[in-house]
Design a protein that fits this description.
alpha/beta, 2 domains, 10-stranded mixed beta sheet, two-stranded antiparallel ribbon
Amino acid sequence: MDIVVLPGDGIGEEITAATLGVLRAADARFGLGLTFEAHDIGFKALEATGTTFPDAVLERARAADGILLGPISHMDYPDRDKGGVNVSAAVRGKLDLFANVRPAKSRPGVPNKGGPMDLVIMRECTEGMYPDRNMFRGHAEVMPTPDIAISMRKISRQACTRIARASFDLAMKRRRKVAAVHKANNFIQTDGLFLEAVRAVAAQYPDVDYEELIVDATAALLVRDASRFDVICSTNFYCDILSDLASELSGGLGIAGSINANEERCAAQAQHGSAPDIAGQDRANPTSLILSAAMMLLWFDDTRGKPAFGAAGRAVEAAVEDCLADPARRTADLGGSLGCAAFGEAVAAALGKAPT
């Protein structure tokens, strides 16, 4: 399998190196036949080519089996017309990776604020209240006067239907519960269309327990009892916020994996940002990207019938949990003493003993 590696900005190079060490260990143990090809994006690419996401890198990512995407500092990029492309949005939009899959799971030994939980947020990530990706041409945010700003939201039946189907398919492999999150009491047409599409899909899955929840009530319920949730399905903006909340409740963004996927392609991406304030100091926690890589291995099994990849993905997750359960093998942000590189080495070592 051909993996394109895009380390990104800030701590990206460090956590990517740690993750690659784990993937190489998984490759050696399970015979996956992984190959890796790294390309610069972000500020390095901007300096060298005039854009944070060169067309050649996009085409190489399009041709690859999978993508390992590090965090980016897009809030600090120059304007788009000066080369400051939001790489994360471009990967999702240009490659049509419509499903941003974000698990939130409490893990043994890791302090959390939400109690026992094991849920997955299925985020539609190609449209919604995101002005850089919901127009064929142009930008969906304008200022007609210096004192008025207008932003437009796009919701399509096609996008809602396919994220709903992916959510129900996932629920069938889990605890068979889907919650569709909306604000249709105010956004009557856009969230109304979302609910229409999800209900049509729900009717095809009679074995799945389906409910509809208003987004603010969902946030309150996550805080009150996150264990009630299995799969949460919603539009881009709501899931962006709810997934951060759920991950923090489960123990923090630093231990939350994430993939962006469709039926043909998958990009593993850490949930957190680039943390430039600690870049180059070996202080970053690479757990999120390592778990994202494990999710990508599982995706290869699910979509391409590669059982060795599924076994490798489960083994990586078990190795991470083994390390997180031991205070001596955690990074400093979780009360341990290991640096980024040493934690990656610890997970790779544990991988050799992890059950499959």
